[in-house]
Amino acid sequence: MNLDQTDRKLLSLLQEDAKRTTKELSMQLGLSKTAVYERIRKMEREGVIRQYTALLDREKINRAFVVFCHIRLTQHTKENVAEFEKQVVSLHEVQECYHVSGDYDYILKIHVANMEDYRNFMVTKLTDLKHIGNTHSIFMIGEVKNSSVIEVGARNKT
Amino acid sequence: MNLDQTDRKLLSLLQEDAKRTTKELSMQLGLSKTAVYERIRKMEREGVIRQYTALLDREKINRAFVVFCHIRLTQHTKENVAEFEKQVVSLHEVQECYHVSGDYDYILKIHVANMEDYRNFMVTKLTDLKHIGNTHSIFMIGEVKNSSVIEVGARNKT
DNA sequence: GTTCATGGTGAATATTTTTCAGCAAGTTGA
DNA sequence: TCAACTTGCTGAAAAATATTCACCATGAAC
Fold it and tell me: Could you give the CA distance from residue A9 to residue A21 in angstroms, rounded to a whole number?
């Protein structure tokens, strides 16, 4: 799918606020409502837009304590990796999990209420996962930037 | 603000898909459309729901190369920290930036198209930032989990 | 017992989304 | 060159949704 300037602008506006109406968008882009509507539907169909979501205030839902937990596995067999990943996905405290290069194999972003809950999570859940060798926790002191908008690249793969 | 079981369920549904209609939500929750509508509006007013956004496919917008860049500052004066943070926020490649505990001061999550673009970013932009001491890049090999849904905690601060 | 505050309902109204018929420009191939 | 086709647009109409409103029940406060 090839995204033109209008598509990119549209994506930028929808990332900022997905509740914008086609009428509002059409005025900003200088197009008809239907034209905008069709472009959005197309990007949804093609999977450029994956999902619409509501972003919550972590403080207000009691999940302000964020930890980056680096994890090294004991052994990197296919089975171990698959089993570990499957288990990690099922932990609701684990907001994100990436397989990464470097000293550690995985980085987990974990959202809990406070240090006590994090300790509980470590002791009762994370430690139970199989094949975990070593962990290293980095605590978030402050959030400087967390943008919901990804700049859309001009050139694209087919 | 106190969130009851219905609010939490509502938040969970809206995080999964913010485009769900009040009608659909009302059926799932066993309430009237208006009751659901009022609950949502209240959570928007109170700031529990911060924003609605469209999530894009990083591959399809040519931003599939993700790097976690750890940064240490040379000196931690108020001025340096403020200046650094201000500059970082303005870089569109930097999707997220956290002030953290540990060996490094900041973790940046950076989205670009490929290694070449990352190199360019490092050389022409990141290195230009003042007060940067040391950096360490960790490359994302795979995304195991990236959930748009944060579990909502039961108890809340006022 | 009256007065509030809270959270609900169903109907009416305002807005928005979605569909549809058609138009114009550009491409393709005989 | 011209018919056939594709693409992306427009404006109006229809369908669905959001929003407002008047009103009801419940429980707490005084």
Answer: 15
User: Who among B1, B53, B97 is closest to A148 (CB)?
Assistant: B53
A-contacting residues of B 54-73, CB under 8 Å? 54-63, 66, 68
The reply to whether the CB atom of residue A34 sits less than 7 A from any atom in nucleic acid chain C is yes
Regarding whether B128 and B92 lie in a shared domain, the answer is yes
CATH number of the domain that residue A28 is part of:
1.10.10.10
Nucleic chain C contacts, protein chain B, residues 12-31, CB cut-off 7 A:
31
Name the residue range of residue B135's domain. 65-139
Taking CA atoms, B147 is separated from A28, A110, B39, B150, in Å, by 31, 11, 24, 7
Per residue in B51-103, pLDDT tens?
999 999 999 999 999 999 999 999 999 999 999 999 999 999 999 999 999 99
Same structural domain, B81 and B112: yes
Q: Is B123 within 8 Å of chain A by CB?
A: no
**Residues 29-58 on chain B lying near strand D, CB distance under 7 A:** 33-34, 37-38, 41
User: Helix, strand or coil for residue A49?
Assistant: strand
* Closest nucleotide to A32: CA versus each C1': D10
Q: What is the DSSP string of B85-117?
A: HHHHHT-TTEEEEEEESSSSSEEEEEEESSHHH
Mean per-residue pLDDT over chain B, rounded: 94
